[in-house]
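Weekly structure sync, notes
Attendees: PL (lead), two postdocs, one rotation student
Agenda item 3: pending single-chain targets
PL asked that the sequence for the first pending target be pasted directly into the notes so everyone works from the same version. It is reproduced below exactly as submitted, 496 residues in total.
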Amino acid sequence: MKKVKVELFNRYAKFHADSNTILALKDTFKYQIPGYVHAPSYQMGEWDGFVSTVSRGKIPTGVFLAKAKEFSDTYHFVVKDSREPIELLPFSPSSKDRPYQIEAINKARKVSATGGIFICATQTGKTHIISRHLQHVKANVVFLVHEITLLEQAKETLEAVTKEEVGVVGGGEKKVRRITVSTVQSLIRQVSVGNKKNPVLIDMMKQAEVVVIDELHLMINESTNKVVDFINPKVVYGLTASLELEKPYVAYPAHSLAGPLVFQYSLPDGIEEGYLKKGIILRLLVPQPRLTVMRAAAETPEQVYAEAITNNRQRNDMIVDIVDSAVRRKHRIVIFAQRLEHIENLVELIHARGVPCSAVTGSTSKKERVSLRNAFEEGRIPVFVVSSVFSHGIRVNTLTMTIDVGAARSANHIIQKYGRGTGAVEGGFNGKVHIDLADTDREYRGNARERSKTLKKLGAELYRIPWEKIRDSDDLIQLLDKKLKKLVNSTSKISS
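Predicted structure, written out during the meeting:
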């Protein structure tokens, strides 16, 4: 076993070792990226597809803390901790803090010299947890979101919990406060060479000791890394509902950016403890007529698949039949579609049945979203057809059914979609149905298999029904409602 001295700093750890040992460590802390076989350098024999996280004798502290134990048979790491923790104020739980949230806050306080990753199921209060923590942190904070639509929502939650004014950078605003919410896009311009600098934003980043990265699974990219490296905070907290840390090509970049895994609270945990609705997932096996798609025009299999289903009238009519039947049984429904064209097609077909329906996409303004959300909650518009913007952070408490019409293969995206509307409502009917259209055509069956693997892990009852075995959509919805009611009424436990 090789003895290696390591000095920990907030963002990076320094190996104190000879050059041969450094080379060996570089070959140890590495991962292979997807699609490496297509890289010209790999095909020419110049690269083996691996990326090392060790450079010039340094490694991201988060990677070291997360991965060092895996190599304890080879290396004995002698650690000197030179990290500087952020200053914390005394914390006392309130009546609004749930037990698991208190646990998460206390763990955030324990990692006040590096930070880490918090994986909390959708609608279990990730932003509440971090807001309560930041309320007791004596430091400037940059709170990063991945799109403009989430700026105001993050600001509202932070202000409600911390009881202080929160700044916003993005969407035409440049208001800086102790805690400032910003899109990465607004800050990457400031750190990029050649762009005109805004001294207020530069000073904000230089003064920040804490960075919070919301929706971490969507933010592991070059731009976020550049912004965080420029800020060079003492602590980074990464928030997400799902992260495939079992995959090295996900884990290494995630730990490099946001530190080790600190806390995890899953969908099954939330259902078991009564904070999330009980659910039924139906994998509805539908025939997919083979369509001619120009593969060269699409970058990924998901795009090919989305193109194939967008204008398939038989499939779209099937979706509308389900929606029509479900609305007549008082369901409030969100349909997830991949393409704007598909969203528009479904909205038009649903309207033709006399069912009030609206599209919610990235171009829907904040004012429109608020108005539409109110109309949905009041039952005036019981159906939304939405893009991925709805999968992240937009809440509708009265939602009872989600329908994924296809194209999502990523486990993160599937979990985000299922998670919409899962928050339990005290005194309400705490159950929801999720319908996943699983195509039987072998051209697209791989997509369905990947979704199935993820759906099995969500803590809901899972059923598979071929469409031809259903007499009509009314029978299907009636069957689902019966099963859901039985599930909700069995050992129901809803916490406030």
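Discussion points:
- The two ends are 53 Å apart (CA to CA).
- The first strand starts at residue 2 and ends at 8.
Action: rotation student to compare against the earlier draft before next sync.
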